[in-house]
Backbone:
């Protein structure tokens, strides 16, 4: 007699909950002197190590601008509703936390030879976390220069992370905090919150998130204005040996200053890779968490195009201005500027720029080299080696060579 086998209906596979990608609301700079822990703090906040370039890993410093998005939450069940975290599920009570907002962090290199890269990143920042190590004298050279760059970029909302408090005792930590306060006041940044942290151990990260949420608000952007975007990175996303029919166009990454963009839009890229503006079509729009239907002014985004990926690989399009055809200012190779020198924390002015001197200008995210052809009564004319796109009244950082490096000495206002 054969044994009767009972068959069970196959279990229905559980549908995975699809999480929609969310564009960050704003860009927050992570700035400060080299080796003060900017990249480590970014990793603690976001879970991402932003130094991914082979040379960065080899040398142990940031060389390019690093980017990472994170969503902040608040747990209403813990600490009387004041527990701020970077995870949806609270690690203390295990309850689901309330979503606050998603932000993009821009990790700027702190080495003195990479100041031009930091300045291009400052053009994207809506607020910043200034990282200052408690075990070193304040200010260090790039601590001062980075804060000056913020002032030039018009960034007013600032939080200080006093890092490496695990390496000092209480007396040294308090002495460091006083020096930081004095430094900020001399630079006209008063009542800036200072949060002692130890990035490697996650110490006071909840307090840092809370302070960021309360001190760096999301700006009000004008989405009705025509698209205006600064390109900070560009890529070729094709794998080596990819078949011709599967090749994808170049990708442009950066931040929209005003307006919005969606798939199918025609865009103009200026001044163009050879000083000639080019038009292309947007084929995709995405942010750190995935594809989105439309991107707007706010956090970092990337747009896929029909451009030849050869001209977008290795950040070749960095500094380009992206907008709608007919709505972008024409490229220029000469600038007339009203110049203001920057004040140092010790109260001394920077060295003067002279006629016939070669200087480096940071125009938005575009670094440019130029020669001063005329300089009198704080008015300057500069002949540029490459084309740039500017608007009247725009502030431009000016650096001159001192010894073996380029030093930020002034800023110019486009006349």
Residues:
């Amino acid at each position: 007699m054969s044994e009767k086998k009972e068959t069970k209906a196959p279990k229905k596979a559980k549908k995975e909950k699809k999480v929609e990608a969310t564009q960050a609301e704003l860009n927050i700079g992570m700035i400060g002197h080299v080796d003060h822990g900017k990249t480590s703090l970014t990793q603690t906040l976001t879970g991402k190590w932003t130094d991914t370039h082979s040379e960065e890993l080899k040398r142990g410093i940031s060389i390019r601008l690093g980017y990472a998005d994170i969503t902040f939450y608040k747990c209403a069940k813990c600490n009387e509703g004041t527990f701020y975290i970077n995870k949806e599920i609270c690690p203390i009570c295990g309850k689901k936390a309330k979503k606050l907002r998603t932000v993009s962090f821009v990790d700027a290199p702190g080495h003195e030879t990479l100041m031009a890269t930091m300045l291009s990143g400052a053009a994207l920042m809506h607020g910043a976390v200034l990282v200052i190590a408690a075990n070193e004298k304040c200010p260090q050279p790039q601590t001062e220069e980075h804060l000056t760059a913020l002032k030039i970029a018009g960034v007013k909302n600032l939080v200080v992370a006093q890092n490496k408090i695990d390496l000092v005792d209480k007396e040294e930590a308090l002495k460091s905090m006083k020096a930081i306060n004095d430094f900020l006041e001399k630079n006209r940044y008063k009542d800036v919150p200072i949060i002692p942290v130890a990035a490697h151990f996650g110490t006071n990260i909840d307090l840092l998130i809370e302070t960021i949420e309360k001190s760096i608000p999301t700006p009000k952007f004008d989405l009705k204005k025509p698209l205006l975007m600064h390109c900070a990175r560009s890529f070729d996303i094709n794998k080596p040996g990819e078949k011709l029919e599967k090749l994808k166009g170049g990708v442009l990454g950066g931040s929209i200053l005003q307006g919005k963009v969606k798939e199918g839009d025609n865009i103009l890229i200026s001044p163009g890779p050879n000083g000639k503006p080019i038009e292309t079509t947007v084929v995709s729009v995405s942010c750190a968490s995935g594809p989105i239907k439309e991107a707007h002014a706010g956090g970092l985004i990337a747009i896929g195009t029909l451009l030849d990926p050869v001209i977008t690989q290795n950040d070749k399009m960095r500094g380009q201005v992206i907008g709608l055809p007919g709505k972008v200012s024409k490229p220029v190779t000469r600038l007339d500027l009203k110049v203001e020198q920057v004040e140092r924390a010790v109260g001394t002015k920077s060295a003067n720029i002279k006629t016939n001197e070669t200087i480096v200008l940071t125009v938005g995210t575009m670094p440019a080299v130029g020669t001063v052809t005329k300089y009198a009564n704080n008015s300057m004319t500069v002949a540029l080696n490459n084309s740039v796109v500017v608007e009247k009244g725009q502030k431009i950082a000016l650096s001159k060579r001192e010894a073996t490096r380029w030093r930020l000495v002034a800023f110019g206002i486009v006349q």
Summary: The longest helix spans residues 170-186. Helices lie at 38-46, 54-59, 115-122, 141-153, 170-186, 205-215. The longest strand covers residues 366-376.
